[in-house]
Amino acid sequence: MDEMEPQTAAGKVLWHFSMSLDGFVAGPNHTMDWMTGATFRPGLVEEYAETTGAVLGGRAGWDAYPDPTGIYGGAWQGPLFVLTHHPDDAQPTPGVTFLSCDVAEALRIAREAADGKNVEVFSPTIGRQLLERGLIDEIDLHIVPVLLGDGIRLFDNPGGAPVGLELLVGDDRKAAVDVRYRPVPPG
Ligand SMILES: NC(=O)c1ccc[n+]([C@@H]2O[C@H](COP(=O)([O-])OP(=O)(O)OC[C@H]3O[C@@H](n4cnc5c(N)ncnc54)[C@H](OP(=O)(O)O)[C@@H]3O)[C@@H](O)[C@H]2O)c1
């Protein structure tokens, strides 16, 4: 398969996640230990730390990990916006703005703060809402070699219609991607 082009800072809206093979971006109760031991291509963290101008997340993700200094292992600093229906009971935190507004307005605020760099959407629920409104530019995923079977899905939309995608690697926008794994014996 063709090499992935490095991500570029181009004022884009990215739905960016590490994801299990079966489509979960967090385990049950927001657990993230399933990523332990996974390796990522060299320079990946630096690439996204450099191209990201702002992060937009949801309140559940914030409540589970209320520390903006942990984003990209501390390699990224910048404005974090957290969307919630109840900003009043959120702990004020430097660099973090709690927003209670329409999701498109939250994105507009984050885009402005990103100042030409990309906005990363760190929330499955907000990403789904933005996708419905045609406001996601790219879905950018790193598939971790694990099956979770339970947790928080990238795209949870029971009863919804399929969403067509185009592959942004290589020339064939409709190409299926080949992956091949072997289960690790338990224990
Ligand atoms: N794998 C990865 O690379 C990666 C990266 C980032 C995050 N994550 C994980 O992603 C998970 C995020 O979880 P999640 O999707 O369940 O929750 P979430 O999106 O973080 O939070 C959902 C909450 O956001 C608020 N919200 C969403 N849309 C809103 C709107 N239109 N208006 C106002 N408030 C709105 C609501 O908060 P209120 O209830 O307060 O109103 C809602 O309950 C976390 O576990 C995090 O660790 C994974």
From TrEMBL:
<feature type="domain" description="Bacterial bifunctional deaminase-reductase C-terminal">
    <location>
        <begin position="12"/>
        <end position="159"/>
    </location>
</feature>
<dbReference type="InterPro" id="IPR024072">
    <property type="entry name" value="DHFR-like_dom_sf"/>
</dbReference>
<dbReference type="GO" id="GO:0008703">
    <property type="term" value="F:5-amino-6-(5-phosphoribosylamino)uracil reductase activity"/>
</dbReference>
<dbReference type="Pfam" id="PF01872">
    <property type="entry name" value="RibD_C"/>
</dbReference>
<dbReference type="GO" id="GO:0009231">
    <property type="term" value="P:riboflavin biosynthetic process"/>
</dbReference>
<dbReference type="InterPro" id="IPR002734">
    <property type="entry name" value="RibDG_C"/>
</dbReference>
<dbReference type="InterPro" id="IPR050765">
    <property type="entry name" value="Riboflavin_Biosynth_HTPR"/>
</dbReference>
<protein>
    <submittedName>
        <fullName>Bifunctional deaminase-reductase domain-containing protein</fullName>
    </submittedName>
</protein>
